[in-house]
Design a protein that fits this description.
single chain; Rossmann fold; 3-stranded antiparallel β-sheet; globular
């Protein structure tokens, strides 16, 4: 039953398909939004719904082949989705670049970061979704996926995912993309250890960077710079950006490629 419900979410809640006639040097690109708001034990959230709709709107100007939007996932559904359903879709469709965006509660306990499923119970990390499980699942996508970006908009995300911090993002150019993008595995989190606010500047600035970009492409480093400045201006936690430990990374990066190249 849970598997059937997950399949129905994949087919009905989204995906949104964008026609793609233009050449995308990133290859086939998919975006996945995980929106957890209606919690059984944790406080319900309203911010993720608005934030994800804003992000979906901002991405319409970019070459994205498919957007999958899944809501209110239990722990079992999260595990099945990343370890089986989504993995199979990525492999079967030979997807080259994926961005996974999570909006909901997060926890950092005993040096381990977690996303909080909607059926999780308070003070019981065994009911949370372990970031190490996500990393293990993503490692099985490497057959076709060259560029992976995980964005976490949640409190207490923690540094579990990181291999090396890029405190000052390196400038990237579209010429680098056109010459062939090197493999990358990156993660950006809105608040690290600190509690995030539902009305944070993180998503608004991320979406604004996409909407106001006048260049043929937009590397994630440029967005990181903008969200970091916005967080400092609003006295909010500094976003963390780095590589995903345990996944292959050749120093490349995730580019959002404009439809109006």
């Amino acid at each position: 039953m849970k598997k059937l419900r997950l399949i129905l979410m994949l087919l009905c809640l989204s995906p949104l398909l964008f026609a793609q006639e233009e050449f995308n040097p990133m290859g086939k690109t998919w975006v996945v939004f995980i929106e957890n708001t209606d919690y059984e034990s944790f406080a319900s959230l309203t911010g993720p719904t608005t934030d994800i709709e804003l992000m979906k709107s901002s991405l319409q100007g970019y070459l994205i082949d498919r957007v999958i939007h899944v809501k209110n996932m239990t722990k079992q559904e999260m595990e099945d989705f990343f370890a089986k359903e989504f993995r199979n879709l990525v492999v079967e469709n030979e997807v080259n670049a994926i961005m996974v965006w999570y909006a909901g509660h997060g926890k950092f306990i005993n040096n381990i970061g977690y996303w909080i499923p909607v059926d999780a119970t308070l003070d019981n990390e065994f009911t949370y979704y372990n970031m190490n499980s996500l990393r293990q699942s993503l490692s099985e996508y490497s057959e076709s996926v060259t560029n992976t970006l995980v964005v976490t908009d949640a409190c207490e995300s923690g540094p579990t995912f990181y291999q090396a911090m890029r405190s000052i993002p390196t400038d990237r150019s579209c010429s680098e993309l056109m010459s062939g993008s090197a493999r990358s595995s990156q993660v950006l989190t809105s608040s690290g250890y600190e509690f995030a606010t539902e009305n944070s500047a993180f998503t608004n600035t991320f979406a604004s960077a996409l909407a106001n970009n006048a260049n043929p492409c937009l590397p994630i480093e440029n967005i990181v710079t903008q969200v970091t400045i916005a967080a400092s201006r609003n006295n909010q936690a500094r976003p963390r950006f780095g590589k995903i430990a345990g996944l292959e990374d050749e120093g490349g990066t995730f580019f959002f490629v404009s439809r109006e190249q």
